[in-house]
């Protein structure tokens, strides 16, 4: 059975959920092999967790030489692994970074690329979300090694031990790949909430909040959810841009999306309409958001959310 390479998405060695989701998808195509590029002191824990979610093999690439560089060294590393392992496919997270790595890798390996994948099956045939989530299509790469960028929340992680065999890999990184480097970075203030793009539940607020996000945040915390915002809320300076959901913000696809005081403009929908269940609270029963919801509450968010928060907190 061919290997399927999965580029591990992690923060300082802590493996992020989209990686486990990709391992579950990789199992459908062959033997999942995770590629961990990071500090070797962090590798043991990462290997253990990747094994737990089905990795048969884990390539560990010590990043001492390339730490802080941007995506090019990762693309070169994957290129060399593709040449060595001839995998059935390469899966990366469909994030800004993942898509850039995928694009560079596709050029280097003269392969086809599919982005925003939400499922894979034998072939590999990929179900792909297109036109801002308005359609899904089945796509197949016909040249080279299929490079597939997978949307977070596309699959459910599956626990089940793989062999987890560790193989250290030392790529040769070219000087040109080391031309761009991160020179400074500022950690985001920890909110204790899940990351927006990988949260199972997202509670968002729009112009209807009038700038008061307390009910949104209170409700989000009662559900262990991430907080999102419409562009109107971000442009008004009520929330930072990192919270914006939509065409020019983040694309989320949680199990549950709750839109509060958000009208449902096409550009907002582009970032959330593939959510599994959508709930809206809006005081205008004609608001376009009600066209796409599973459950709608016509009401004032300042009445509805505190009551809902109280009920949930009681349970
Ligand atoms: P509004 O459209 O003003 O809606 C506010 C809603 O709140 C109304 O439906 C109102 O009935 C309701 N409301 C008011 N008070 C209450 C209350 N007390 N309780 C309950 N409901 C209440 N938008 C995005 O969100 N994300 C994007 O990424 C994005 N990208 C864009 C890119 C381009 C190129 C352009 C042109 C626009 C983009 N927009 C984006 C903007 C988008 O078109 C809308 O203007 C924006 O989404 C509106 O935000 P909103 O729904 O919060 O505000």
TrEMBL record:
Chain intervals for the UniProt region annotation (Disordered): 151-196
Every Electron transfer flavoprotein alpha/beta-subunit N-terminal domain range: 4-186
Highest rank taxon of the organism: Bacteria
Residues spanning the membrane: none
Binding-site residues for FAD, renumbered to this chain: 207, 230-231, 244-248, 261-268, 282
Matching Pfam families: ETF, ETF_alpha
GO terms for biological process, alphabetical: fatty acid beta-oxidation using acyl-CoA dehydrogenase
Cofactor, how bound (note): Binds 1 FAD per dimer.
SUPFAM superfamilies: Adenine nucleotide alpha hydrolases-like (SSF52402), DHS-like NAD/FAD-binding domain (SSF52467)
Subunit and partners: Heterodimer of an alpha and a beta subunit.
General function of this protein: The electron transfer flavoprotein serves as a specific electron acceptor for other dehydrogenases. It transfers the electrons to the main respiratory chain via ETF-ubiquinone oxidoreductase (ETF dehydrogenase).
Protein name, as recorded: Electron transfer flavoprotein subunit alpha
């Amino acid at each position: 059975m061919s290997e399927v390479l999965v580029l591990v998405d992690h923060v300082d060695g802590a493996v992020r959920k989209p990686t486990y989701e990709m391992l579950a998808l990789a199992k459908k195509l062959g033997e999942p092999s995770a590629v961990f590029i990071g500090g070797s002191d962090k590798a043991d824990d990462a290997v253990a967790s990747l094994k737990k979610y089905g990795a048969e093999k884990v390539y560990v690439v010590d990043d001492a030489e390339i730490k802080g560089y941007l995506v090019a060294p990762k693309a070169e590393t994957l290129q060399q692994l593709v040449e060595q392992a001839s995998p059935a496919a390469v899966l990366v997270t469909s994030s800004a970074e993942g898509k850039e790595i995928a694009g560079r890798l596709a050029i280097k390996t003269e392969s086809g690329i599919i982005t925003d994948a939400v499922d894979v099956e034998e072939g590999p045939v990929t179900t792909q979300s297109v036109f801002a989530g308005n359609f899904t299509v089945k796509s197949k790469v016909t040249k080279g090694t299929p490079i597939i960028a997978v949307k977070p929340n596309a699959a459910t992680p599956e626990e089940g031990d793989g062999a987890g065999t560790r193989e250290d890999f030392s790529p040769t990184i070219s000087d040109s790949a080391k031309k761009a480097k991160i020179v400074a970075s500022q950690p985001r203030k920890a909110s204790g909430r899940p990351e927006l793009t990988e949260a199972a539940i997202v509670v968002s607020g729009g112009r209807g909040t009038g700038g008061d996000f307390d009910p949104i945040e209170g409700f989000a915390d009662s559900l262990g959810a991430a907080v999102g915002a419409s562009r109107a809320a971000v442009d008004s300076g009520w929330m930072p841009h990192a919270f914006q959901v939509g065409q020019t913000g983040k694309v989320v696809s949680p199990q549950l999306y709750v839109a509060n005081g958000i009208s449902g403009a096409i550009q907002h929908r582009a970032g959330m309409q593939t959510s599994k269940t959508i709930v809206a609270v809006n005081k205008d029963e004609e608001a376009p958001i009600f066209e796409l919801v599973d459950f709608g509450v016509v009401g004032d968010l300042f009445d509805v959310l505190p009551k809902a928060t109280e009920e949930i907190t009681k349970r």
